[in-house]
Specification:
46 residues; mainly alpha; 65% helix
């Protein structure tokens, strides 16, 4: 995700943290599926 014009470094970092939190939540949710989709979970955790 490119930093948009007018976005401070702090806002840019917060946006990346928001994406990371969503990826982690997705990975946790996917562990409840069977069979566990390990490749997709690893993708979200990279």
């Amino acid at each position: 995700m490119p930093q948009t014009e007018g976005m401070t470094d702090w806002e840019y970092a917060q946006e990346w943290l928001r994406y990371a939190e969503m990826d982690l939540g997705c990975a946790k949710h996917l562990t409840s599926h069977w069979p566990v989709p390990l490749e997709i979970i690893c993708f979200h955790c990279q």
